Amino acid sequence: MTGMMRSIKMDWAEALHHLGGRLSTPETDEQARQMLDTALFQYPRTREGVPVYCTACRATHLAARRGTHGQEGTCALCGARGVQLDTGRGRSSRCAEELYTVYRKSAADPAVICGVTYWVMRDDSVPDPRSEAVRVQPVQVTVYAYGRGAARFARNVSWWFCGKGCTYHKWLRGGYALSDDFAWMTMVRPVGINTWTAWGCSRDEDWNSLAAAIRGTVFERAWSDDAYSGVGNTGTLLAMLARYPCCEYLAKLGLAGVIAQQADGRGEMDAGGYRAVNWRGRSLEAVLGMSRAELREAQRAGVRITGSWLLRHHILRKAGSKAPVSEMDALYANMPRLAHTLAEVALLAPITYLGNALGCLFCRLRGWS
């Protein structure tokens, strides 16, 4: 389900209306700039000392000694730690970039929250880094409508970073397009040719803005800080909370970990026609495939209910097993794979038997046996 989740139908005008008509503000732009790795540029020594420009506070201070080129240092003004770089060497192919997501409440509907992803880029190869402006461009907008799902709009970027201050940077024509697939980071990474910087552009999210965005909304009822703090696919997680009402019920039952597994892509486990969770179910039995009494028994026994545990439970119950749920943790961990193998054997056995019988008949007709 994680990789096949689709965006709901929504046009760009509606999405922009939820954002109050503004993709960014001076505050969000400054937040995005601060997410870039800090660099401390060291200029030629003067009589007063070595001028050092910090990209975090964008100020210059004088240092008594020059730091080691390429090693980590500390800004004497703001305390930021970053790599020390001499302006006279080793910068011909340096470029810092980041993807940063900020969340906000909808300006039009209290049951909607929005996320805007910014692409931030700083060209460190220019002759004078103090004169280089950090580029901050919104490249993705996601609208999470509770009870409906999510819509993701993305814009492609094409650029070629040549280094030495020569940066070709062009936005493709056309606005934000609705993405069909809601897979993790779909179209978030700016596409194009960039031969110098690393392809692994890191991504960060403003968790403080997310907490403020869901506060007082219906999303808060399905939220769990403990279960969701380690989820890397936050966009998919929020889309699940918006699309499937059972997520709120599972969170209240203390089963938010199952939701987190699914959002991270580890919860969709199929074997022999079984599914761990029916996300469109309207009752506990329909969603989890177990009775309320079994759930209470498992919770009293301290069982950690996960997608794989639910899958083993379904296999056993369908096979007619009456084993108590408190003992299912001790069962063979690869039971889903075993069940799938047994299903294949059951399918191939008649074919194998028929093949052996035909082989024996052929040998007898030829007089070989």
**Unreliable segments (pLDDT under 50, ≥5 consecutive)?**
167-173, 184-199, 267-274
Cα-atom Rg, whole angstroms? 28 Å
Kindly report the spatial arrangement of strands forming the biggest sheet.
12-9-8-7-6-13
Bulk shape: elongated
Find the structural class using helix and strand composition. Answer: alpha+beta
Number of domains in the coordinates?
A: 2
Q: Give helix and strand order, one letter per element, not per position.
A: HHEEEEEEEEEEEEEHHHHHHHHH
Termini separation: 55 Å
Give the helix tally. Answer: 11
Number of strands: 13
Report the biggest beta sheet as strand number plus sense, adding barrel if it closes.
6 strands, mixed
Average pLDDT, all residues: 77
Strand % is 15-25%
- Overall helicity: 25-40%
Structure keywords:
single chain, 369 residues, alpha+beta, 6-stranded mixed sheet, 11 helices, 21% strand
Protein described:
With 369 residues, the protein is an alpha+beta fold. The protein has two domains: 12-214, no CATH class; 269-369, no CATH class. It contains eleven helices and 13 strands. It has a six-stranded mixed beta sheet with strand order 12-9-8-7-6-13. The chain has a five-stranded mixed beta sheet with strand order 3-2-1-5-4, with no helix packed on it. The model is unreliable at 167-173, 184-199 and 267-274 (pLDDT under 50).
Can you lay out the helices and strands and say which pair or pack?
Elements (H helix, E strand, L loop, with lengths): L11 H7 L7 H9 L4 E4 L7 E5 L4 E5 L8 E3 L6 E6 L8 E11 L6 E12 L11 E11 L3 E6 L2 E5 L5 E5 L5 E2 L24 E3 L1 H8 L10 H4 L5 H10 L2 H7 L3 H8 L20 H5 L3 H9 L6 H12 L16 H32 L3
Parallel strand pairs: 1-5, 6-13
Antiparallel strand pairs: 1-2, 2-3, 4-5, 6-7, 7-8, 8-9, 9-12, 10-11
